[in-house]
Amino acid sequence: MIIGVDLYSAIRIRYTDGESIRSIAKSLSISRQTVKKYCEGSTHPEVRKTYQRESEVVNDDVKSFILSCFKEDEAENLKKQKHTAKRIYDRLVAEESFEGSYSSIRTAVRLLKAERTVPPQSSIPLSYAPGEAVQIDWGEATVYLDGQKTKLYTFCGRLCYSCDIFVQVYKASNEETFLEAQQLMFDFFGGVPRRLIFDNAKVAVKEGFGMYAKPQNKYLSFSAHYAFSLDFCNPARGNEKSLVENLVGYSRRNFLVPVPRVADIEQLNRKLREACIHYREKHKVQHRTHPVNRMYQEEANLLNPLPRFRFDTSKTALAKVDDFSTVRYEKNNYSVPTRYLRKNVTVKGYANTLRILHEGTEIATFSRQYGSGNTRYCLEHYIDLLERKPRSVQNAKPVKETLTQELLTWGSQLPGGNKEMVKLLRLCVDYGEDRILAIKKRIPGQMVPTVDMVRTYLSEPAESSIIYLKNEISITQTDLRKYDERYGVTSQ
Q: Signal peptide position in this chain (predicted)?
């Protein structure tokens, strides 16, 4: 019989006061067996005994047969051809003359499997030596770049010993970005760990996975130059790089909330770098004995030194300048000075920038464009050609796509026509558009502006040509008596 707490309390109190079991049972109208069970406090009515009943038919021989079926499955290692509980039951009946029920075998199979199975959530606590390893990973975040809502890729790196972090954002997660991000990470940490832990992304792995992964050729060359070994995780095993997995979410919640609004990606990366430095100086990881900064100082001394030669992380291509003085690189066009027309150039695509070289000399630099069908112009590249062909200035793409509408409207109103407009563009190239527009605002509205008038503002003399000296000039007094004595001069 199961009793309530009130009845249990009455039994215990009466019994401890010396009342007999018979008297308690009679007065409370319950059986003597119930009083005897609870009177001494050897159990409690809220405690339920676990039901355990050993199956008489599932003996040691039957269990051994079930385990032998498991071992057969492990030896064959075929996911789709394994013993089910029903198949084991059928074999027991046919081979061992088993007379028990199927449900007893099904229960036995379930219990024996549970004893042999390690839960997938289980993790082993790991420990790393200073300078031993770094974990890296990619994440995603949304920001506003120059007012446009843009999805970016966050690269996260974390030293395994000190938990020092490195976070930067990029427009793409391609190979050149992947290598450049690691290169900047090593610069930030001041050295290179001996091992790098990453997943099986195609940007790093050519084929295979885990310990069988084959890295991409350029990544293999990069790791050889920086002298670190590659350790790729198994598929869908985030626990193998849990330190950086946590960093991806941490950086997004703490560094990118509220959603940043910046002029360009370089400005955002500078802020992220400052956030990483602040993390190093102020943060302490839970369950760690010392703050990040103290452990980083210890680890930094044990990192391998950076190589003297800086590895070229770019994706390099050879291209020919077309008749519009542009170069095509990955479905987008970029301008170069017109003097390189129809010449071969080298294009180096980095994570966020693009450099164009001719015979080893850099001739143009742009912010790298992703997508397709975009063309980036630089007015400076076309100014010489515009001076030769001023009639094209009103419809020239390098003019219309690089200058503000305010300056274009003002230039079209100049009395000298297209030639005067080209002269104004030359001043924009030499002094910058912002300065020319500032001069425009200084010219009185009733006056007809000219380029010569703009030049006078650019060459304004100093406010005053007078050089002011101190009112009092200190003079050192010289004693001439020794001179007089030497040359026989007598004082009058």
A: none
